[in-house]
Amino acid sequence: MVGIKRPKISICATVYNNVDRVSASLDSIIKQFPDFNKNFEFVIVDNYSTDGTYEILEKYMQKYKNIHVYRIKCKRGKGRDIALRKSKGGYVFNVDLDTIYYPTLSKIIYQSIRRFKQKTDHNVITGVVRRETLLKMGGYKDLNIFEDTELKARAIHNGITFLTVPVKIGENQLARDRFREERYANSYFKKIMRLILDIEDNIRGNGTSHLSEIKSKYFLANIAFKIIYLKVKLFREEIYRYSDKYENNRYIPINQKFISPRLFHIPKKYWIYSFFIRDDCMDYKKALIRNILQLQNIGFNKFTYINDFIILYTSATSKKILENEIKFYESLNII
After folding, report:
1. 3-state secondary structure string, the chain?
2. Which of the pair, 107 or 287, is modelled with greater confidence?
3. Does 183 have pLDDT greater than 70?
4. Residue 335: band (very low, low, confident or very high) from pLDDT cuts 50, 70, 90
5. Residues 6+ apart with CB under 8 A from 195
6. Is 90 exceeded by the pLDDT of residue 176?
7. Which CATH superfamily is domain 9-147+162-171 in?
8. Burial class of residue 335 (count of CB atoms within 10 Å of its CB; 0-12, 13-18, 19+)
9. Is the pLDDT of residue 182 over 60?
10. What gap in Å lies between CA 130 and CA 122, rounded to an integer?
11. Which residue would you say has higher pLDDT here, 4 or 328?
């Protein structure tokens, strides 16, 4: 509409039953941007939370006129797509409202648009992307998990480069149980049903199109994954794969590029990056070594190994941030 000033940047999020962290997460984001009321909008899709999360969001809507919340029953990928299409900013950035964000978030967003605008207009810098780029690609798929993996692989397939700033942008919520499903299901039966749905969307979003690619270090999990894979194939559910050789979670890091945090004026206390290293794909292993060497050249000189992940950091990385990263990966049970 003529005369209405559109926001420069849209921050998008989905949320469901996260009453313990949603306020702290929102505050950690909003306080970073002095021009939040002028140049930003915050678009949130709430999946009909039942624990008081939505009531908290209502209070934020009353306080900030540029926060918009929509209650829609949907998977997370669909929620992200709705938030994208409801947004109006020239650039978008997705956040998770169970994460407490560090000041690195604002540095990456501001610098991506101000200093690296030409790169951001054609590529993605740690999640900062032109809204029109995502819309032209078709937005997010209707997946409960791996919606980000699917989108990244599709973007790379379409010629978009992902430039990663290897820093920590926030403190993750620790997994509460093996499958991180406690707050999403209030009974054992519902938890199992949701787990099955997640495995289906894992297979579809990761582009797992061959039975031989179903592998787990646990015998029973391996059988369960293969049975669910056969169900996906039997019902002809679409599997989103963008490489003949690789699943999406291998295709992405093989094509990954890093950009030095120094160019974003990010202090070394936030320099930390993690890789999943349990893999038998030789090309992935070569890419992993190449990426580790890239980080060493940037200034990463220390590492630790936790639960199938290697964590790279520097002598100046915050001990608290490193401890939180270690606790997060210790809380996961990678099957």
Report:
1. CCCCCCCCEEEEEEECCCCCCHHHHHHHHHCCCCCHHHHEEEEEEECCCCCCHHHHHHHHHHHCCCEEEEECCCCHHHHHHHHHHHCCCCEEEEEECCCEECCHHHHHHHHHHHCCHHHHCCCEECCEEEHHHHHHHCCCCCCCCCHHHHHHHHHHHCCCCEEECCECCEECCCCCCCCCCHHHCCCHHHHHHHHHHHHHHHHHHCCCCCHHHCCCCCHHHHHHHHHHHHHHHHCCCCCCCCCCCCCHHHHHHHCCEECCHHHHCCCHHHEEEEEECCCCCHHHHHHHHHHHHHHHHHCCCEEEEECCEEEEECCCCCHHHHHHHHHHHHHCCCC
2. 107
3. no
4. low
5. 179, 181
6. no
7. Spore Coat Polysaccharide Biosynthesis Protein SpsA; Chain A (3.90.550.10)
8. middle
9. no
10. 8
11. 328
d(C-alpha 238, C-alpha 209), whole Å? 10
Report residue 192 as tokens. 């199992």
Q: Can you give the residue ranges of every domain in the chain? A: 9-147+162-171, 258-331
Where does the pLDDT of residue 202 fall: very low under 50, low under 70, confident under 90, or very high at 90 and above?
A: very high
Q: Which residues contact 91 (CB under 8 A, 6 or more apart)?
A: 8, 9, 10, 109, 112, 113, 120, 128, 129, 130, 131
Q: Is the pLDDT assigned to residue 155 strictly greater than 60?
A: yes
Beta bridge partners of 310: 275, 305
| Sign of the CA dihedral with 154 first, then 160, 161, and 167 last | negative
Segment among 22-26, 170-174, 184-188, 272-276 with least mean pLDDT: 184-188
Question: Look-up: residue for tokens 């020239």?
Answer: 90
* Under 8 Å between Cβ of 131 and 26: no
The 10s digit of each residue's pLDDT in 220-229 is: 888 999 999 9
Map tokens 């200093």 to a residue.
Answer: 115
Provide the 10 A C-beta neighbour count for residue 196: 14
pTM: 0.92
Measured in degrees and rounded to the nearest 5, phi and psi for residue 77 equal: -60, -45
